[in-house]
UniProtKB/TrEMBL annotation:
One Pfam family from the record: Citrate_synt
InterPro entries found in the cross-reference section: Citrate_synth-like_lrg_a-sub (IPR016142), Citrate_synth-like_sm_a-sub (IPR016143), Citrate_synthase (IPR002020), Citrate_synthase_AS (IPR019810), Citrate_synthase_bac-typ (IPR024176), Citrate_synthase_sf (IPR036969)
Record protein name field: Citrate synthase
Active-site annotation: 253, 308
Gene Ontology cellular-component annotations: cytosol
UniProt organism field: Paenibacillus curdlanolyticus YK9
Family: Belongs to the citrate synthase family.
Keywords attached to this entry: Acyltransferase, Transferase
GO function terms (MF aspect): citrate synthase activity
Length: 363
């Protein structure tokens, strides 16, 4: 018998990057509450914290920001690859391909913080401009005076974003930056444990992130809420959905058996953004009702909203197209992946679990 299906409960590595406590609903990044960092710090400060294990001095921060600005700008070769991709290709696959095409320009082994900054800084430029290309509008270069998060919104629309949108996206990006040994982070650690390069590890993580049970959920939350449509329809819709054996997207988590602290923090952020929005009102209503209905259909499973449920609300409020929900999640999770890649490479042992053979034996 398989002892740990899905490796549930298996501790495969020591980490100093984050603590995810699913019983108490706690998320800590290097000794700091993620929910506080999301409100009081910038994306760049928290990225620095995750990579270096401390906050930067003023001089360190300045040098760090200079690198971010430089790496955000794509070179001629990267732009050529981006332009050459089929328009039908989804953004996650396109992002993976553009990053993959640059692997010869990164350190072979061991990966460096500079590699991590470069991949993280360039991702929003790639994603925003892939989207612009799909919309048939011109490439927008990063704005030298805007920070990481504001630049992403700027490149998407080609105009300076509203402060409230930047603050909401900053909170979203920090809360989704890191989350322990999830499927994509584990994938990246497995690849780098073979002493393969950082780009291969990131490409594997992007592949894992794409799936609807992981990073693909927020656009499915939008689809679900759009399908429900109104408070009157909510109960019947959810019951029919569950009776067909389907899952309610944005609910349940392998680790959290109480409310996901990221969902709580994002709910507050969305409340500040657009308290009058009927869609948000519906989301809050559906959350409360779904928790009760899930307890009825799946007693004792302790299914609550996960980060994706209110992530959908934040992304919708800043007018993010739903095709970019997962790529946007990816652009912030790059910080966590690269922090784990660095940590794995510094104390490495190749991952090699076992499987149990249940096939036939030769006669
Ligand atoms: N709706 C209905 N039932 C559910 C749900 C849900 N969203 N989630 C779990 N269950 C049920 C499941 O059917 C199973 O029931 P039973 O015991 O009768 O077979 C039980 O709860 C345990 O489910 P599981 O699949 O063994 O739990 P897991 O820990 O393997 O799955 C999960 C975790 C997130 C994949 C799952 O809860 C799910 O599919 N949720 C919906 C998709 C979603 O919102 N994904 C985003 C996850 S958060 C992002 C991240 O951090 O990666």
């Amino acid at each position: 018998m398989v002892q740990f299906p899905g490796l549930e409960g298996v501790v495969a590595a020591e980490t100093a990057i984050s603590l995810v406590d699913g019983q108490q609903g706690m998320l800590i990044y290097r000794g700091h509450w993620a929910k506080d960092l999301a409100v009081y710090n910038s994306f760049e400060e928290v990225a620095y914290l995750l990579w270096y294990g401390k906050f930067p001095s003023a001089n360190e921060y300045e040098a760090f920001i200079t690198k971010f600005k430089k790496y955000r700008v794509l070179g001629v070769e990267e732009k050529k690859v981006l332009e050459s991709l089929p328009l039908q290709l989804d953004v996650m696959s396109a992002l993976r391909t553009v990053i993959s095409s640059m692997s010869h320009t990164f350190t072979a082994w061991p990966p460096t913080v500079d590699d991590a900054i470069r991949i993280t800084a360039m991702a929003p430029t790639i994603i925003a401009n892939l989207n612009r290309r799909n919309e048939g509008v011109e490439f927008v270069e990063p704005h030298p005076d805007l920070n990481h998060v504001a630049n992403y919104l700027y490149m998407l629309k080609g105009e300076i974003p509203q402060k409230a949108h930047v603050a909401a996206m900053n909170a979203y990006a920090i809360l989704t930056m890191e989350h322990g040994m999830n499927a994509s982070t584990f994938s990246s650690r497995v690849v780098v444990s073979t002493q393969s390069d950082i780009v291969s590890a990131i490409c594997a993580a992007i592949g894992a992130m794409k799936g609807p049970l992981h990073g693909g959920a927020p656009s499915e939350v939008m689809t679900m809420l759009n399908g429900i449509g109104s408070k009157e329809n909510a109960e019947q819709w959810m019951r029919e959905h569950l009776e067909k054996g389907n899952r309610l997207m944005g609910f349940g988590h392998r680790i959290y058996k109480t409310r996901d602290p990221r969902a709580e923090a994002l709910k507050t952020v969305t409340g500040r953004l657009a308290s009058e929005d009927p869609w948000l009102d519906l989301a809050v209503y559906v959350e409360e009702l779904a928790i009760k209905i899930l307890e009825e259909y799946k007693p004792g499973r302790r299914l609550y909203t996960n980060v994706e449920f209110f992530a959908a609300a934040v992304l919708r409020s800043v007018e993010m197209p739903s095709t970019l929900f997962t790529p946007t999640f990816t652009s912030s999770r790059l910080v966590g992946w690269t922090a784990h890649i660095l940590e794995q490479s510094q104390n490495n042992r190749i991952y090699r679990p076992q499987s149990e053979y249940v096939g036939e034996m030769p006669i």
